[in-house]
Specification:
This protein has two domains: 32 residues; 109 residues, no CATH class. The chain has two helices and seven strands. A hairpin with a 2-residue loop joins strand 5 and strand 6.
Length: 143
């Protein structure tokens, strides 16, 4: 009789254990996509969305340059001093809407939807957007 009760108890618990296991897998799968930028498509670890714009890890606004085209940066030399490129670490791989371009000096730079990403040297703190519409060719990068 004791053996029958043990077998019956195990049989009753098995569906509950399977349900819990499946729910855990689904929850983990759902959570794995969280924080990946929603509309920004598989963001690299160096980019996040803050107040509707792309920012670097320190929260500084990222920009695009109208004169960039064909997946190439037109901002080099003194331009890159004022508009530091968002560089990709060695061994980093492109993902989703983010690509990595090779700069004139051989460095690797992040691009979003084909447009290289930059910071503005005069932005001092998170939330600054001093470079937006600068000379009508620099724009805040948006997801």
């Amino acid at each position: 009789m004791a053996r029958l009760r043990l077998t019956t108890a195990a049989s009753l618990l098995r569906p509950a254990a399977l349900t819990l296991g499946c729910a855990s897998v689904l929850l983990l799968a759902a959570c794995s996509g969280m924080g990946m930028g929603g509309g920004a498509g598989n963001m690299p670890p160096t980019v996040k969305v803050t107040d509707g714009v792309l920012t670097d890890p320190q929260g500084l606004t990222l920009y695009t340059f109208d004169r960039d085209n064909g997946g190439k940066s037109a901002c080099n030399g003194a331009c890159a001093t004022n508009w530091p490129p968002l560089m990709a670490a060695p061994g980093t791989n492109a993902s989703g809407s983010y690509t990595i371009i090779t700069r004139e000096d051989g460095g690797k730079q992040w691009a979003y939807r084909g447009m290289p990403l930059y910071r503005f040297a005069k932005d001092a703190k998170p939330g600054d957007r001093g470079g937006d519409n600068f000379n009508n060719v620099w724009h805040v990068a948006k997801p």
